[in-house]
Fold this sequence. Notes:
The structure holds two protein chains of two kinds.
Chain A: E1 6-17, E2 20-32, E3 36-40, H1 47-54, E4 61-63, E5 66-69, E6 72-73, H2 79-85, E7 90-93, H3 97-100, H4 107-116, H5 123-136, H6 142-146, H7 155-167, E8 173-177, H8 185-202, E9 205-210, H9 213-219, E10 222-227, E11 230-236, H10 246-253
Chain B: E1 2-11, E2 18-28, E3 33-37, H1 44-52, E4 59-64, E5 67-68, H2 75-80, E6 81-84, H3 98-108, H4 114-124, H5 141-153, E7 159-163, H6 171-188, E8 191-196, H7 199-205, E9 208-213, E10 216-222, H8 223-227, H9 234-242, H10 248-251
Parallel strand pairs in B: 3-8, 3-9, 6-7, 7-8
Antiparallel strand pairs in B: 1-2, 1-4, 4-5, 9-10
Helix pairs in contact in B: 4-5, 5-6
Amino acid sequence: MDKPLLNVENLSVSFDTPKGVVEAVRGISFQVGQERLGIVGESGSGKSQTGRAILGLTPGRVEADRIEFDGINLHKAPARTIRAIRGRRISMIMQDPRYSLNPVMTVGWQIAEAYRVHTNATKREAKQHALDMLTTVRIREPEKVYGLYPHQVSGGMGQRIMIAMMLIPGPDLIIADEPTSALDVTVQLQVLAILDDMVRDRGMGLIFISHDLHLVSSFCDRILVMYGGQIMEVLEAGALDQAEHPYTKGLLNCLPDIDRQQGTLPVLRRDDAWMNRKGGAGGDVP
Amino acid sequence: MIKVENLDITFGGGAQRVHAVRDVSFTVASGESFGLVGESGSGKSTVLRAIAGLTPGWRGTMTVVGQTLSQRRDRAFHKQLQMVFQDPYGSLHPRHTVNDILKEPLVIHRMDDGERRILRALDEVGLGPAYRFRYPHQLSGGQRQRIAIARALILDPKIVLLDEPTSALDVSVQAEILNLLSRLAREHDLTYIMVSHDLAIVAHLCSRIAVMNRGAFIEEMSDEQLRTGTPEHGYTRQLLVASKGYDRAAIDQFVEFD
Lengths: 286, 258
């Protein structure tokens, strides 16, 4: 990897609760270049909190030695600097378009707005850009879709609209948190293909957060496997069969395999020893 | 055990009319596990809900354990047929303890010996008596789904309808619930109809699988046929390809099926 886009060192996120401090992310380190990086884990593994902490979107307490993006330490930067980066240079795609779009504005207006707040474009220019963007995410009849409200579009189309909205300011890095989990499999893959093409064509970095190990390994260049707020191991794409950590292996084994009949599925046995690692097991710390 | 003939369901009228299920027929033998697969909106859950009596206004003929069903179901019917829902966060009453939840079907069906039945049901789903007086929010997703399964089984039904029973759960928990369902089917000689969008899960639990699209059955096959990748219909083959993960070249070949 040449110069990484994002360099995260010793990131922790914790929450104060009546029952004491909950550590959602425990001192992880990783880098992202112009690549597709997958973060996989089960619920509660800290994968989403990791993504949110980068943009300062978590209500938890974030601690880090550095979260460096293009020479700027996001962790220590003033709110004004973060605002100039968030959405413009690093953007985030959330899971369900129905909750992330404004229900009382047309989708076209929302995409155009995303362009206008980050540039000095006129309304007319912004609309033209929004229409072009709708075409790029392969929406037929962009003029018609421009005037629709979020409840009038399907889940797959809603997610393509979200992608259009997040990509229109031309960010360098995209954080996608389970962007396709609410969609049917075929639609899911079609939406991913659009995201994939755009990331490739524009040379962006992508952090893809998902619970689906197989999907991530077929889609991403590199995978971080998270458990209990820590990175268990880092895998090259397509090298799932070379996974060494018992957690990764256990996760893979407990999935029903369509190619063979299994009487009983192997059950994942959790080991307390996995929680005792200090720092990221990523090995990517320079 | 279950025979469905020419089941047809529409919702709404006029321009809003939705033809949810189109002329669906199938039979399920005693002790068999039958799977319904399809994407969202394919009508798979509506078929299940019609059998359970949760969808009024269906047309066609349905026979369950030798009895022809009318629109209304009596208590004896529900004693034979129970259902487990998708979301264990929504299907358990948040202000009822596990004990209340498991007791309710017993009270409705005026069954005696509640204490013993509740403890046995808890034991069967792998939760001990320690869980008896907990509230749903004190349980994990997997534990909640175990309670939902215990509630379905406490009446000793012959048939259990499963509507995406593991799709709200993590994969490691999913494996535990699937193993539990397999064991219970063996031990109690249960007949299952399971709805899922996941081909691998259906192929794992069911011996016969029907694929649905836009309200109609596209094809019916054995788990073996699905496994060996020999479905006849293009739609099923496309689903099969999609379930194998991201493949940029294959995605460009995807087509819409009507």
